[in-house]
Hints:
Elements: E1 8-19, E2 22-34, E3 39-43, H1 50-58, E4 66-74, E5 77-78, H2 84-90, E6 95-98, H3 102-105, H4 112-124, H5 128-141, H6 147-150, H7 160-172, E7 178-182, H8 190-207, E8 210-215, H9 218-224, E9 227-232, E10 235-241, H10 242-247, H11 252-259, H12 305-308, E11 320-321, H13 327-334
Parallel strand pairs: 3-8, 3-9, 6-7, 7-8
Antiparallel strand pairs: 1-2, 1-4, 4-5, 9-10, 10-11
Helix pairs in contact: 4-5, 4-7, 5-7, 7-8
Amino acid sequence: MIPDPSFLTVRDLYVQFKTEDGVVKAVDGLSFGLDRGRTLGIVGESGSGKSVTSMAVMGLHDPRYSEVSGEVWLDGENLLTATPRRMEALRGRKVAMIFQDSLSSLSPFHTVGSQIGEVLTKHTGASRREARERAIEMLARVGIPQPKLRVDAYPHEFSGGMRQRAMIAMALVCDPELVIADEPTTALDVTVQAQILDLLKALQEETGSAIIMITHDLGVIADVADEVMVMYAGRAIERGTRREVLKAPGHPYTWGLLASMPHLATDPDSPLRPVRGTPPSLLTLPSGCPFHPRCDYADRVPVDLCSTERPDLHPRTGHSSACYLSQTVKDQIRG
């Protein structure tokens, strides 16, 4: 069981891709929920299923190459059973996505203002003049200097941080109720990154939107998320509030992610402590817990449970982790 909020509920989501080598289980039975005005941080290594999950919520997987099943309820409507025409109407208006690479996501042949205005025209029927005025307003809203001049600029004339702000303006021009931000601060310097995160938080307070923040950076999660879900091999392996997951993590994988982060108090000459090994192939997942081949504590669990039985998140709404280690052993390990 998972929380059943009134806004977003994902139940038993599966996303599979057929390849010449077999079926890739990119998302494998994922469930989570999110209320309005809240931010869910989804964290994990590359290949854990974070972006594939967001694409499924947006209805962007091509059915010719993928198989998506389960339920994605948004404000009482199951998006996985919606028609392509209905999803087209919802995208941008009800749910919007900020993509990772703003340069490739923006058309180089059209001005930034025309691309922002096109979203408004498509969903509201606004005139060209109204769309241009709204684009200027949105550029000012996201902190672009001289918006009346910048509205006619092309993406290559913007810096990386400005392009990302323009992407946020495009995503929010119709005031969507759910915003999915997929690595929105990747490749930005720390100052611009902080500005982008502050902007998203301010806009959320202004509009009351729900945000899914997808990242591999636990520092970003610590800054913006209300709740955190840790993914590994297409599954949720830990879930809880930000404080619960970051201050008292219950899964060895989360321990490893936290230990691999540099800290200001750490000796700058000390080596980083990465999670050993590599993520498993999604074509041939190991039996039992998918993390057990990389786990330093699997031998602390009796009768080889880790390698034979798949652990699931505890069926309660609070902090839980998919791990067979007893709480006593976890406390001993964590000191």
